[in-house]
Design a protein that fits this description.
By secondary structure, the chain is an alpha/beta fold. The chain is built from 7 helices and 7 strands, in the order E-H-E-H-H-E-H-E-H-E-H-E-E-H. It has a single domain, classed as 3-Layer(aba) Sandwich (Rossmann fold). The strands form 2 sheets. It has a 5-stranded parallel sheet with strand order 2-1-3-4-5, sandwiched between helices. Strands 6-7 form a two-stranded antiparallel sheet. The structure holds flavin mononucleotide (FMN).
C-alpha cells in the first residue's frame, strides 16, 4: 500500500535549509504519496490563556491536526533557535495541544534537523525526540545533519556526504517499516 507522507519544516524561513532536507528525505521513500505543508499557512496569534478563554482555539489549529490525521507517516525537520523550537512551530504546537495532548495521533515519525554548524540542530532534535511520545508521536528515527553547507548540495537537493546519506536512508527505511 502507498504510504501518505506529510512533510514539513518547523522553521521560520521561506528559504529553510531544513525544508530542503525534509524534501530530500521524502524523496527517499519510494512510491510514497508526499504532501508538504508550510507551517506559515497555519500562523495564529501567540498563544495566550486569556485569548483562548475569550475566543477559543483558532480553526487553523484544527486544520493542521486534520492534515496530520490524513497522513500515514510524518517527516518533520527542525530548525534550532537558541537551542529550542522556532517560535513559528512552538506556537502552532501549543495551540494544537490545547485541543488535546494526542497532537501526533500515533503516527510513525521521522524527525530531522540541520544547521550550518557542527551541532546540526541536535539540541532541538533531541528535545523533540524525547517529548513527542508524550503527544502520541511514534518516533521511529531521528537524524541530524551538521555542516549543512558542506554536506548538502542545495542545487541538486541531496546530501553529498556518503555516510550521512546512508544514515538518512536507514532512518527513512525505519519510518516505513
Ligand atoms: C534567532 C535565531 C537563533 C538561532 N539559534 C541557533 C541555535 O541555537 N543553534 C543552531 O544550530 N543554529 C541557530 N540559529 C541558526 C539557524 O540554525 C539557521 O538560521 C538555520 O538556517 C535555521 O534553519 P532553517 O533555515 O531551516 O530555518 C539561529 C538562528 C536564529 C535566527
Amino acid at each position: 500500500m502507498t504510504s501518505k507522507i506529510l512533510a514539513f519544516a518547523a522553521s521560520n524561513s521561506s528559504v529553510s535549509i531544513n525544508r530542503t532536507l525534509v524534501d530530500y528525505a521524502a524523496t527517499l521513500a519510494e512510491g510514497a504519496e508526499i504532501t508538504t505543508l508550510d507551517i506559515h499557512d497555519y500562523e495564529m496569534p501567540i498563544y495566550r490563556h486569556d485569548r483562548e478563554e475569550a475566543d477559543g482555539i483558532p480553526q487553523l489549529a484544527h486544520d493542521f491536526l486534520a492534515q496530520v490525521g490524513a497522513a500515514d507517516v510524518l517527516i518533520i525537520g527542525f530548525a534550532e533557535h537558541n537551542g529550542g523550537y522556532t517560535v513559528a512551530f512552538k506556537n502552532l504546537f501549543d495551540w494544537c495541544s490545547r485541543i488535546g495532548p494526542a497532537v501526533w495521533q500515533d503516527k510513525p515519525m521521522l524527525l530531522t534537523a540541520t544547521s550550518t554548524g557542527q551541532g546540526g540542530a541536535g539540541r532541538v532534535l533531541a528535545f523533540a525526540e524525547g517529548a513527542f511520545p508524550i503527544f502520541s508521536g511514534d518516533v521511529r528515527a531521528a537524524f541530524s545533519l551538521p555542516h549543512y553547507d558542506e554536506k548538502f548540495d542545495a542545487e541538486a537537493g541531496r546530501i553529498t556526504d556518503a555516510d550521512k546519506d546512508a544514515e538518512l536512508r536507514a532512518a527513512v527505511a525505519k519510518l516505513l517499516a
